[in-house]
Amino acid sequence: MWLESDKMSQRERLQTVLNHSEPDRLPFYLMGMPSYGDFFQEFRRREDLLDTYTDDDKNILLTPCGDITVNAFFGADIITHGLHVEYPKTQWIDAKNNLVEHGIIVHGVETGMRINYFGYREKATILPNGFAYNWYVGPYMKSDVEFQAWFDKYGWPHDLAVRDPGNEITETNAKFSHAVHVIPDYGPSVFTHLWMMLGDRFAYFCRKWPEFVKKIVDSFADLQVKQVEKMKPLKPVAVFNGDDLGQKDRAMLSPEMFHKFIFDARKRVNNAIHEIGAKSVLHCCGNAVELLPELVASGLDAWQSLEPASGIDHALVKKKFGDKMSFWGAIDNNVLCFETIADVEREVKQKVRMLAPGGGYVIGPAHDYLNTKVDNAIALRAAAAKFGRYPL
Predict the structure, then answer these.
(1) What is the distance between the alpha carbons of residues 150 and 144, in angstroms, rounded to a whole number?
(2) Where do the DSSP E strands lie in 243-334?
(3) Among 86, 118, 227, 384, who pairs with 161 as Cys (CB 3.0-4.6 Å)?
(4) Is residue 11 within a helix (H) or strand (E), and if so which, with residue range?
């Protein structure tokens, strides 16, 4: 998104926020708009909304990183773009739990049970609206011996190849600096994938085979560092990663468990990010406030999501950690899905008042636009532009 009144480039704006200073206006980060969601389906029925917007060629963003015109229309200033990791092919499972080459074809799409590279099962289905979706089912293996054999056969994460980033991000940022700034992201999500790999045996593994759990985490971190090192020629302002550590009212694991199994890996990756001159940004769903001291100590610079429905006290988080990290998101998706345009405006004013003073805030929804009302998304974009200009 760009405004006629902008006084900074998108890179300058983001850099200012990450350095805890006040920019000309709040930058806006929009996670995503999945095509299977009600939001995107409604937007497709109302594509005429773009007609006037795209009359101005500066709003048409056909970039080397893809067509991000719609993202910018809904307010996005910051776009993430990942490096490609060569993951082995997902394998399908038949009714007898045997690995097979293909799933069941339904309307031209493969469906059924499958197991991905990480060793957990997914069920590929067709949603009522006709779009494909993969549901998490649970772990495929139950012991350290099985996982050891699996990764020995298909390759440990640190063995996987990472493609060079190419020129897409650099060229997009050079040509479209007025409208968006692209930052690289990396994967996988260490805790999230570990939890899905182990399922309800996560605590059992941590107790019985702690060194094996650390071996998996360290291999993930090696892969992440490999990706970050390839980002150095991009000279990124920030580097993005997602790992859902929170749930409603509390974290998914205790600070002690985080420190024992995740901290060293997280710190090693954050150090690599800092070594290329960038800030480390983490998307984390749920309430992970009790882990913030550990995350800050590991070198994390910014937390994206700050999900209101999880019980986060945003004013308290800003007071205790606002000098150490920046905050992205925090706009309540429940308001965006179920309330009115006036409620959206009140929500924006409240979060700006709590999180924006002194800088360090990137405004945006806490989550993807799934069931969000299109009119409320437009209202959020307008309210962010109206109430997010400095001086506040």
Answers:
(1) 10
(2) 279-284, 302-305, 326-331
(3) 86
(4) helix 10-18
Q: Residue 300 has which token pair?
A: 């994390």
Please name every residue paired with 302 in a beta bridge, in sequence order, or none if there are none: 281, 326
Whether the full predicted model's pTM is greater than 0.85, yes or no, is yes
Amino acid, res. 142: K
Which residue reads 């992440």 in tokens?
224
DSSP state of 67: E
Residue range 151-188, pLDDT digits in tens: 999 999 999 999 998 899 999 999 999 999 999 999 99
Parallel/antiparallel/unpaired status of strands 181-185 and 78-82 = parallel
Judge whether 306 and 330 are in contact, CB under 8 Å.
yes
Strand partners, 162: 85
| Residue that the structure tokens 């805790």 belong to | 191
The residue count of the chain comes to 392
* Type of residue numbered 233: P
Written as one string, the DSSP assignment of 74-94 is TT--EEEEEPPB-PPPPEEE-
d(CA 223, CA 371): 34
Give the domain ranges of the chain.
Answer: 10-87+155-387, 89-139
Pull the structure tokens for residue 278: 């960038």
Closest alpha carbon to 354 in 341, 363, 342: 363
